[in-house]
Amino acid sequence: MTEPQVWTLIGVFAAALFGMLTLMSTTFIRVVRTEISSLRHELKADMATGFAAVRADITRLDGRMDRLDGRMDRLEERVDSIDNDVQALTKRSYGIE
């Protein structure tokens, strides 16, 4: 262990090992960043599609609610008309006028 060549080889191997460790960790970090970025873009696209479907459903339900409001208004008018007719018949039957 006193030979300079041995210490030189130890230094070269240590530097090579440290360099490989640095290279692998840098490559790994780049791969992870790329995969996370890809996943982010896929999720954004899927969420946009889902939101569009929900918006379409809400629009469709708004149309149905408008039709239902119209039907309820017509039903209310008919009930009011029937109520007036029943009141008139009741007054006529019992002679209340």
Brief characterization of the structure:
Keywords: Coiled coil, Membrane, Transmembrane, Transmembrane helix. The model has no long low-confidence stretch (mean pLDDT 93). Helix content is 94%, strand content 0%.
Largest sheet: none
- In terms of per-residue confidence, which ranges show pLDDT below 50 for 5 or more consecutive residues? none
How confident overall, as mean pLDDT?
93
Query: Helix segment count?
Result: 1
Class based on secondary structure composition and strand pairing: mainly alpha
Describe this structure in words.
With 97 residues, the chain is mainly alpha-helical. The protein has one helix spanning 4-94. It is rod-shaped, with a radius of gyration of 41 Å. The mean pLDDT is 93.
Brief descriptors of the model:
single chain; about 100 residues; mainly alpha; 1 helix; about 95% helix; membrane; transmembrane helix; coiled coil; transmembrane
Write the layout of secondary structure elements.
Layout lengths: L3 H91 L3
